[in-house]
Amino acid sequence: MDRSKVIEKFTDYDDRLLVNKILDAIEYCRKNFTYKATTFLDPRQQKLVEGLLKQEKNIEYDVESGIENSERKLYIIYHEDYDMDDIEKSYQILEFSWYNKGVKKPSHRDFLGSIIGAGIKREMLGDIILQEDKAYVVCSKEVSEYILYNIDRVGSLPVKVQLVEQAGIIEEKEKIINATVASLRLDSIISASFGLSRTKAAELIKSGRVRVNWEEKDLTSKVIKQSDVISIRGKGRIILEEIAGNTKKDRIRITIKKFV
Question: What is the residue range of 137's domain?
């Protein structure tokens, strides 16, 4: 494989950095008949990485996330002759608990801010799952001990942190919304999903809180396609499940899956 030609296919700077790291990992595994783990990747990055790995001879890969149905995952890249039984788990799960029952429950942003504020890079963290009086954070093995012994607060809330083998997960609930929209523009879909005006939906997009398929570029006039995932920081996540044709007044029938 011509390394420079592969990298040239990607115009985004961050994508080029990621491609370069994956090509380094592939070369290392091939030369040393061993394995190497990536950092945690979002779904868009996962597609990019899988596209590269599927083209490689003598190279296999496995995917780990720590929690079922996680969005953020890491990849174990290994030489096809390497014994899978010798591959160590590359992540650990931390349980955060608190006892101040009267206080406001910390948010996903609170956890992320506290951990990153302690010097941990985002790519070292997998999913963060919140419950009533606990939270679970998946992280790369090399940073788990640092988090364990250096974080005792999330925001102003005192927390206890411990290693656990698995997360106690409350199943994510789904709500199905059937609606009609004037167009499939992003602001129309957000408006129908969250009961907002088009103006308020447009403000959310301009504020940088919205991502489509985990990207936040050029969203102002973005047209949404079936199966696209829309995430809004602070509001949740939706999927455009179905585009079901037009009404007599030429509006578009859609079905949205909203995670609540």
Answer: 91-164
